[in-house]
Amino acid sequence: MIRLSITLLIHVLITATFLEVASKRETDPCWAYGTKIEGNSQWVQCNFCSFVSRGGITRHKHHLVGDTAQVAKCSRVQAEVKAFFKEDFDKKKQAKEAMNSIPHFDNVFDLDEEVDEDKLNT
Ligand SMILES: [Zn+2]
Predict the structure, then answer these.
(1) Does the record's keyword annotation contain Transcription (predicted)?
(2) CA 39 to ligand 1 center in whole angstroms
(3) Long-range contacts from 27-34, C-beta under 8 angstroms, 24+ separation
């Protein structure tokens, strides 16, 4: 019974965290610098250079930060905007590492669109 309670507790914890991440995504500050394209929920047009990222708001953020070869770098992004989201990525990475210390947490994020970030970090 104790084991079951702990499992339940972890499940609730994970669900709460997951929902928080999901709701955060909708109000991502990055939307101030990108415009959703009608009919394509994963397509975001850059407000600085009109480049279209086809991997959602996270991909658009990578476009602004320019930290990966998988997305074209933004040529017109303001330095402070770039620095802001770079810091955001660093914080996220730290949070992810902390989450990974919980057993089986990875399973929850298998469905996450940001899975490819892992590849970038290796
Ligand atoms: Zn751009």
Answers:
(1) no
(2) 21
(3) 28/57, 28/61, 29/84, 29/88, 30/57, 30/60, 30/61, 30/64, 30/85, 31/57, 33/60, 33/64, 33/77, 33/81, 34/60
Q: What are the residues facing 46 on neighbouring strands?
A: 34
Overall average pLDDT of the 105-112 stretch: 54
Predicted confidence (pLDDT) per residue in 23-59, tens digit: 555 688 999 999 999 999 899 999 999 999 999 999 9
Mean pLDDT for the stretch of residues 59-73: 95
Residue 25 CA to ligand 1 centre (angstroms): 19
CA of 52 from ligand 1 middle (Å) equals 8
Query: Who's near 22: CB < 8 A, 6+ residues apart?
Result: none
